[in-house]
Each structure stands twice: as C-alpha cells, then as structure tokens.
TrEMBL record:
Protein's organism: Penicillium brevicompactum
Name of the protein described by the UniProt record: Glutamate--cysteine ligase
One of the protein's GO biological processes: glutathione biosynthetic process
Catalysed reactions listed for this entry: L-cysteine + L-glutamate + ATP = gamma-L-glutamyl-L-cysteine + ADP + phosphate + H(+)
One GO MF term attached to the UniProt entry: glutamate-cysteine ligase activity
Comp. bias intervals (Low complexity): 522-538
Pfam families per UniProt: GCS
Pathway noted in the entry: Sulfur metabolism; glutathione biosynthesis; glutathione from L-cysteine and L-glutamate: step 1/2
Organism taxonomic ancestry: Eukaryota, Fungi, Dikarya, Ascomycota, Pezizomycotina
Length: 670
C-alpha cells in the first residue's frame, strides 16, 4: 500500500456530487502522464514482491490466540529502527548474510492487525537476485517479530480463523459495530484509523444503500446442521438502519454470513509487481499473465475457514470482491435502471475484463462481450492520442465512482500529479493491474502487478511462487508465448478456483498451443475494425504468418492444473514448468543456481500433481484430526490456538524431519 494522503474526506452524499469532476481530472492526469511516459524505456526488468502478515497475540496459559491491533506501534518502532540503520548508528536490523542490502520496508494495511513487507529495493532479473528472495523474506519476518511484543508473532495466513466471532478475538477488545462499518461482528476499531479506511468502508456502504454481504457456503461435515443457519447472526439488533439487512434476507441458509469490509480487506495475499522495459512489453505481460491468474489462485489456495467455520471454498478472492462491492441494486440488475448509468457485471474487486497488447494474435473473439465502458471517457482518451485498446481499458475502469475524495484536492487540477487518476485506478482491484509510471519519479517505468495469489504459510513457499511467476515472464518474453483465451473463460476459471481442492479436482480453460503462429495481416483487426500496429516482439525469430484462423473454440480446452503446470501426458500442451526449464536451458545458469531454482520448481510441480497439499487442504486436515473437533464445521478457540501454534512452528521447521506441515512442503514424513 502506498503513501496515505491526509485531508478532509467527503461523506458519500458530498462525494457523489464531486465524482464527475474527479473522473474528468483523473483522465486529464492520465493523458498528460501517458504523453510524457509512452516512449519511456528502461534497461532491464525489475520486480518486487509484497508479503502481508497477520499479527497474532498468543496467550499460552489460556490457550488463546487473538489478533493484535498493534500495527501503529509496530510501524513506529520499525521506522525508528530503519532511520537508525540508514544513519549508520543502528544495530537492530543487522542480520548475517544481509550486509549491503537495504533494510526491508513495512507498510500499513486495512486491518490494524496487518503489516505489509517489501524488499528494501527492487529485485533485478539476474539469477543471483532470485537466490536472495527467500532469505530476504525470512529477514523481513525476523525484523517484524523483533518489533512486536514477546507474545506476538507475524504469521502468513490469509485470514484469521475466528475473525468476527462472538469471543474476544482481538487485543485490545472492542465491542462490535460503529458508524463506519455498522457491523454486528467487528468493531470500527479493527480498521486502520487513517481517514481513508473508515471513509472507504462507510462510502461503499452508503453508495450501495446497505451493508456489504458476504455469504460463503459452509462445509457440511457429518454433524453440521442441515440447513445450517449461521448461529452468530443476531436478527434483533436495532442500532443502525442497516441492521434490517438480515431481517430482509441478507444471511442465507447453509452459508457463513459476514457484513463488513474487514472480512475481505483483512485478508493477506502475495503480490508481484514487474517493471517492463517499455509500455509495449508491459502491455504484453499484462495480457499473457492474465490467464494464469486463476491457475495460481488455485495452486496457492489457503482460505478454508471464515468466522470460526469450515467453508466449502478454498480461496479468498470472491469474499474480498463482495466486501468492497459498492454496486447499487440497479447496477446489480436487482432493480430497473432509473438513477444509475449501467448494469455492471462485476465488483470493483474482480478478475480482469480487458486485454491491452497491440499483438496481432489478439482476436476480437477474446474480448469480453459484456464489457461496460464510459464512451465519453474513451473518446476523450482517443482524441488525446491514446490507442483504442488502452483507451477502452481505462474507460472501463472509470465507470466506477471515486470512493474517497479529499476536499483540498478539488481546488486546482495539477497535471504533474496523478492523485485523481490513482483515486480510480487504485480502487479497481482486478487480478492484474497495469500501472503507468508515477509522474514525479523518473526512475520508475511501466509496471504490471500480478495480484491473484494467496499468501503461503512459509517463506519458502512464498519465495517459490514469486520466483516461479518471474521465470514464467522470462519464458513468455523469450519464446513469445501466446496464452490468449477469451476473457469470459478466465472469468469462469476464477470461479472454478474457489472450489474445494480445485487444484486436484477441477479443470480449467487454457490455451492448447502457446507457440501458435501470428495471424495473417488480414485478420489483425481491433474491435472496431482498425488495424493493430505489430508492436515489438521479444522473440528471437518471429514465425511466419499462419494459415487462416479457425474457430476460436479450437484454440483452448479444459485441462487439469497438473496438465497446465507439468504438461499433458499426450504432449498436447508442454506445461509451464517445462517451458520455464527450456528457458533456463537457453541461458547461462550455473549448476548451483540451477539446483537452487529446481527446489522451488519442485514445490510447484508437486503442488500441481497432488503430491503436496495446498495450505487450504492442510488446514482442513488439521481441523478434522484435532481431538476437540466435533465434525460440525466449527473451528473453536482451542483449535484456532493450536493451528496458529502449528503455523508458527512450520515457519521455522518447514516440515523437515517429519515436523508439522510435511504434507504441505515435503510430501513424505522423513
């Protein structure tokens, strides 16, 4: 999360009146920045990872674990230590093996129980940098822990299993509700107190006209009631008008019900940002990585518990989408369009809906037929010189309203800033994000953010998935790979990834031939019939034009995750890991480095073929085998405490010698 602006935040009735101004000014800032940066070239790819932690306080005497709301104090302590480090007078952050490295950076997140950590400087594409990622992640965890209370630990679980239960799951304790969230499960104090966060939550609720609704199907075990009626829901509250939501059917049978932004934005994830050498390469990476989003979501599945119950999904994605869904009933299609402009198919936190690259292989059949675009904004961008594909992308993002507006920012338009543009850009949380260079930083280029992955329990896993996706980008650019499928199929894949044990039990749409030749010139048409420019290919040899195109449906098929990652047994699809290994074979990599990278690829390979469990499966098995579990889907305080202790142990021992988590990391108990 970037710097947090200060100012006088407008409540929704006033913000709504200024929404058009913010959109218009944001587009003018985008155009000005695009003109400055469209020819920007960087010498080499840089990348960075973002790891997010839950801060958990352990009470070993009472066998209780609670979320610690100590974010502010921890960040202050970390900032002091970093300042001492940079001045040369501090010893606190020093760690063997990190001499000469910049200290890691720590940032606030939505929850006061969360921390975000990034490396002190971006990683380069050199293989030696890849070998530092895991040790740097371990260093970050150690540094964070050193600035916490003795009983506090930073753990990398996606969600805290008992967030929103009726017990004292936070420290210090605050009773539920408050004017911003108006939740019957969590207090306003659970959120970062910076004015952006309560305003964001309150304005989502106000714009929507009711509280957000998260209904996650419960996992039906042997003794789970049928129908399951969430026993934590209070139907007799009358503190806020929105308390009527549950009386009007907001809480569904056989689902775990949640009612606040904290249940989504209080989730941790693993995100990777790539800096491309130029805009063309960035657009290509955005497109080619997009179909991989659901695949990596399923591979990293780690969210089987919500609000003290096992649920029948394995990942966080849709829950966050529902937690920030500001669409009105009209936009959702629940009421006739009278006051709003469009029906909008997706939440503002959702899978991608656009492709960006001026790639001749991009067929019109791949585009989303249900894409909603502000045509006036699209025209303004194209009149300003932007090509249709990029203009369509931003005109789609800008169908949304800005949610947090500071009155001080409306006094004068500054085309050397990007605050109004980022107001909309940063609150469109899609699984890929295309990021123009900041106008005030010449050393930053065009970037692409890969956002779908779940945080993993250990630093080894987080490093493995980070390095894997980096190597995939190198293979994409080196071999000019083509992973295009229709956007609707990627949207469908994102839903499939939510299924319990989807990595083993479900199939995903994926392109059969990643080496497909470029299309004939006669077929290089954009959505309005204009000819695409050919762009810049990173392949050494561009293949000759292919024969006339066949039906688009013949280009992709349903595949297992094992097929996609390791290759089809019949050779019809080579597999992502074999493609990465072919790339490594084509470059000069020393034996030691290759062996190091092989350990990471082996984790991905075995996760895909079922030899190793996902984090979600490990947690399900842990709960199922716990002596106090009653086969009723309830994850009690005792189970949660033991789970957190096991996770803490796993971050240290990493499943070695038969220790906890070997099923997740080793595949055998040795």
């Amino acid at each position: 999360m970037g710097l947090l602006a200060l100012g006088t935040a407008l409540e929704w009735p006033d913000a709504k009146k200024k929404a058009s101004q913010v959109r218009e000014w944001g587009i003018e800032q985008l155009l000005a920045n695009w003109r400055r940066a469209r020819g920007k070239e960087r010498d080499a790819l840089l990348w960075g990872d973002e790891v997010e932690y839950l801060v958990v306080a352990l009470d070993d005497a009472a066998k209780k674990s609670r979320l610690s709301l100590a974010q502010a104090d921890i960040l202050k302590s970390l900032a002091r230590d970093e300042a001492l480090w940079k001045s040369g007078s501090g010893e606190g952050n020093k760690h063997a093996g990190h001499d000469g490295e910049e200290p890691p950076h720590f940032h606030p997140e939505f929850g006061r129980f969360m921390l975000e950590a990034t490396p002190g400087e971006p990683w380069g594409i050199g293989f030696k940098d890849l070998l530092k990622v895991e040790s740097n992640m371990k260093w970050r965890r150690e540094v964070a822990k050193a600035h916490m209370a003795p009983n506090e630990v930073p753990i990398t679980l996606t969600t805290f299993p008992r967030l929103g239960t009726k017990d004292d799951y936070i420290q210090p304790y605050y009773p539920p509700s408050g004017p911003a969230l108006r939740s019957q499960f969590v207090p306003d104090e659970i959120a970062n107190p910076h004015i952006r966060f309560p305003t964001l939550a309150a304005n989502i609720r106000s714009r929507r006209g009711r509280k957000v609704e998260l209904n996650v199907p419960v996992f039906h075990d042997t003794n789970t009631p049928k129908p399951f009626k969430d026993p934590t829901v209070n139907y007799d509250l009358h503190n806020w008008p929105e308390d009527d939501d549950v009386r009007n059917g907001a809480a569904k049978d056989d689902h775990v019900y949640m009612d606040a932004m904290a249940f989504g934005m209080g989730s941790c994830c693993l995100q990777i940002t790539f800096q491309a050498k130029n805009m063309t390469e960035g657009r290509k990476l955005y497109d080619q990585l997009s179909p991989l989003g659901p695949i990596l979501l399923a591979l990293t599945a780690a969210t089987p518990i919500y609000k003290g119950f096992l649920v029948d999904t394995d990942v966080r994605w849709n829950q966050i989408g529902n937690a920030v869904d500001d669409r009105t009933r009209e936009e959702l299609g629940e009421a006739p369009l009278e006051n709003d402009r469009w029906r909008i198919p997706k939440s503002r936190y959702a899978s991608n809906s656009t492709y960006l690259s001026q790639d001749p292989r991009l067929r019109k059949e791949y585009f989303d037929p249900d894409l909603v675009v502000d045509e006036d904004i699209k025209k303004r961008l194209m009149d300003g010189g932007m090509d249709e594909l990029l203009a369509t992308h931003f005109a789609h993002l800008f169908i949304r309203d800005p949610l947090v507006i500071f009155s001080e920012d409306l006094e004068e338009l500054d085309l050397n800033k990007s605050d109004h543009f980022e107001n909309l850009q940063s609150t469109n949380w899609q699984h890929m994000r295309f990021k123009p260079p900041p106008p005030d930083k010449d050393d930053i280029g065009w970037r692409v953010e890969f956002r779908s992955m779940e945080i993993q329990i250990t630093d080894f896993e987080n490093a493995a998935f980070s390095i894997f996706i980096v190597l995939v980008t190198r293979a994409i650019l080196s071999f000019d790979l083509n992973f295009y499928i229709p956007i609707q199929r990627t949207t469908e894949n994102m839903e499939t990834a939510h299924a319990r044990d989807a990595v083993n039990d479900r199939k995903f749409w994926f392109r059969k031939d990643p080496f497909a030749s470029r299309v004939p010139r006669s077929s290089q048409q954009s959505t309005n019939g204009s000819t695409f420019s050919s762009g810049t290919s990173s392949a050494v040899n561009t293949p000759p034009p292919s024969p006339p195109l066949g039906p688009v449906e013949t280009e992709f098929d349903l595949m297992t995750i094992d097929d996609i990652v390791n290759g089809c047994a019949d050779g019809s699809f080579p597999g992502l890991i074999p493609l990465v290994e072919s790339y490594l074979n084509s470059v000069n990599v020393d034996v030691e480095t290759r062996c190091f990278l092989a350990s990471y690829l082996d984790l991905i390979r075995k996760r895909a073929n079922g030899t190793l469990w996902t984090g979600a499966r490990w947690m399900r098995e842990f709960v199922a085998k716990h002596p106090s579990y009653k086969q009723d889907s309830v994850v009690s305080e005792e189970i949660t405490y033991d789970l957190v202790k096991a996770v803490e142990e796993m971050t240290i021992k990493e499943g070695k010698n038969g220790s906890v988590g070997w099923e997740l990391l080793r595949g055998r108990k040795v």
